[in-house]
Amino acid sequence: MGELSRMWRETDHRYRMVGEKCGNCGKLYFPPRDICPTCHRDSIGKMEDIEMSGKGEVVSFTIVHDVPPAFTRQRPYILAIIKLEDGPSMTGQIVDTLPSDIDIGTKVRSVFRKISEDGHSGVIHYGYKFVRDA
Amino acid sequence: MKKSGIVSYGSYIPRFRIKPDEIARVWGEDPENIKNGIYILSKSVPAPDEDVATISVEASRNALKRGKINPKDIGAIYIGSESHPYAVKPTATIVSSAIGANFPMFAADYEFACKAGTAGIQNVKAMVDSGMIKYGLAIGSDTSQGAPGDVLEYSASAGGTAMILGNEGVIAEINHTLSVTSDTPDFWRREGEPYPTHGERFTGEPAYFKHTVSASKMIMEKVGMKPQDYDYAVFHQPNGKFPTRAAKLLGFTEKQYKEGLLTPFIGNIYSGSMMTGLSAILDIAEPGNRILAVSFGSGAGSDAFDITVTDEIKNMDRGSAPTIKKMLADVTWLDYAVYAKFKKKIIFGDAIE
Predict the structure, then answer these.
(1) Quick check: is A7 in a domain?
(2) Which residues of A touch B330 (CB under 8 A)?
(3) Is A109 among the domain residues?
(4) Residue from the list B99, B344, B352 with its beta carbon closest to the beta carbon of A69
(5) pTM above 0.95, yes or no
(6) Which residue in chain A is spatially nearest to B338 when comparing CA positions?
(7) Nearest residue to B137 via CA among B90, B91, B86, B92
(8) What is the pLDDT of residues B264-298, one digit of tens each?
(9) What structural domains does chain B harbor?
(10) What is the ipTM of this complex?
(11) Does residue A63 sit within a domain?
């Protein structure tokens, strides 16, 4: 049940890419942070929710062949570090794309996809992944 | 009172496709018989991480983007599908959260075979007209099921369309809507069963044609229109043949129905079928165009809509979200083995998923 409540608490971040903006220095963070690592205590109470655009470009990537069991149907899959237009860099899966069609600098945009399922009777977890931005 | 109607629209069709030749190869059938019999040249297939919730969210986001509508102004969400991911837990809750809508929200999932999405349009229109909400979101979306080797496997596909209704900034006024309903056992899926059962040839005359043609005639009579008065006509599309025949029976020409006829290229997306055809028409429609749109749901019933495109459509940047034409062109072809893997026709043990 711990996993269920953790995923539920992260719904805004996972569904809509809601990060944080430091009200002190203006820097954006994704995933969200409670305190700005630059401004420290000066940012307390000043961190504001902000939705990322979901657009970015691939900074680095890897092709995962030895996949976790839940990703068997998606083997091999692409995992990338993506620099968002909004500023933050993050890790994300790139889907609907052949490994040969991805490269450093490829433009991507976020999409809403299934992330995992807690077995056949458990809850379905949804969140962001990325596709090439044609 | 201002006339309500469609304020914005958005669709989503998965990029994966399979051809009937590939399915027929596996089951030892003649692909030409299939193509000629049901006029389906390819169908869409959802990726392993796509379902009705993800398709509905993508279609809704496209509609919000195209209409430049703040999700906080959406007051109701109704989603029609016969493949909701949960038996109990509404897809509408997931969509509401994913688009960033408000906590005060009318929401529910609908099921009426292939016309549950258009039932949502009627519901939302009534709520707009009554002043209960400013904008409402009606979605028709499916990842439909067809048993391996069954004729439905050639047509059952995936996709969805979201329509935002309101009475401000209306791009297409809904002049009138009506429905017909009867207890007709042409197609069903019992609780817990993975695949539907159909009445084969019984599905035609007493089900699809009776309801679709009747609803079309009734609404044209109600609004005083004749087939030749319409610029476009779009019908539910379980295959490529039925809507073509219904259109001809009613007196429509190919010019009127061809733009909304998508099943030959993407298959039958069930609750999203007619709505996605309407979406393709709205992609190209001009002010003043008149559209007849009629859905059909097995069980059975039809929802008919008489629509007039307004000048407001000129102010909409229709290319700001993917058009149907763009989605039809953006394709990755699958063979049957990968299709079977994606559609979970190959079953893994509990230890894997």
Answers:
(1) no
(2) 134
(3) yes
(4) B352
(5) yes
(6) A73
(7) B92
(8) 999 999 999 999 999 999 999 999 999 999 999 99
(9) 5-171+324-342 (3.40.47.10), 173-312 (3.40.47.10)
(10) 0.96
(11) yes
